[in-house]
Amino acid sequence: MDGTVLVADDDRTIRTVLTQALTRAGCKVHATSSLTTLMRWVEEGKGDLVISDVMMPDGNGLDALPKIGQERPGLPVIVISAQNTIMTAIQAAEAEAYDYLPKPFDLPDLMKRAAKALDVKRRAIPQKVVAERPADDLPLVGRTPVMQSLYRLVARVMNTELAVLITGESGTGKSLIAKAIHDFSDRRPLPFVVVSAADLEGMEGPATVLSRAKGGSLVFDEVGDLSLEAQARIVRMLDSLGENSPRIMATSQADLMHKMENGAFRQDLFYRLGGVTIHVPALRERVDDIPLLAEHFLARAEREGNATKRLNEDAVDLIRAYSWPGNVRQLENAVRRLVVTSAEDDIARSQVEVMLGNQPAMEPLVGGGEGEKLSSSVYKHLRRYFDLHGGVLPPAGLYQRILKEVELPLIEIALDATGGNQAKCADLLGINRNTLRKKITDLDIRVTRRRKLM
Predict the structure, then answer these.
(1) What is the pTM assigned to this prediction?
(2) pLDDT score of 385
(3) Phi and psi of 28, rounded to 5°?
């Protein structure tokens, strides 16, 4: 790696770590805790790459990006931030940041991105005039890798013409993703229209819907629940789109692939809606975001005039351990209930236990209904895996990784089902017993009380 890197962060430890790593990689480094100093270096022509935090003592790193672009067109800027919200990712993309990483970041990953930024000569892109934004009050908060990948994908597709299909369980925030794509896109001044089955009824239904959208965004809510007749009307409507057509989006908690295989969803509509698929993970798939979301909802309740409340450590542990079948919507309602019912400023574990006692138990996974083919479920998860890479190919060696991911639970479940009898397990799986022994060793499958090595 070769070049001069300007590092701006108010955290001395981060400055030290980045300086050491970049120097070892062959770069010259200038590090500062001041945005003013960073801008002076940029104006003086120093640096081939900027790595900057967002919240600095003397300003906002995102606000400085347009000025950096004017002073030094093509100078790549990598933004790092502890503000792990979709707003930060989108604002970084809009401000033409070269890349964005949430804190805490993975140092090897940042070094790879820095090396790539130094190698790429970026052409100067005129800065866009950014219209006034809605308040950063969307519960699209998360520092987990799965949510950060989702934010990156949203930022990349928001100003494309591709149709967007947003999938996920009820309460995960699918409609919020659709609204965010519209509100942060170039179509933000135009209408945002959510379409239901009733809107498509009658000969004039589709034409009326299009006239309401007027080049804005058109969202088919829970498209998997629409009748085949309504689906046919959508297909004809999409085929008739001309100039000034709206951005097409759709949401679905149903497994459309499974419905299509069963003849309950039109294949032609599926491919018209699936230009880009964005899967919103269930809350249990991003457990580390639960405390962050709870804090977000407590802060929102305080802004709305409620007393300041906080969850003590034991209460947070219990909230984190719950399955949340209703996802983010259920968590928000639960936190609001705790704010109102708690007499103390510190919400105790006992109060959370009472609240959770009135909550539903874990529900079956969406799309996992009776009769679903295994291939459909596998396709869904593999499709999600590719989608979460945001158009970038996954790391090489995918075939063996997937085989291992399938083999491990298959052998563990088969061993449990046969009471740990390896002879029966091998017969059940249709493989040689020695092969099974080798796989148990290679996959590091541990012995349990029910599973004893023979």
Answers:
(1) 0.58
(2) 65
(3) -90, 140
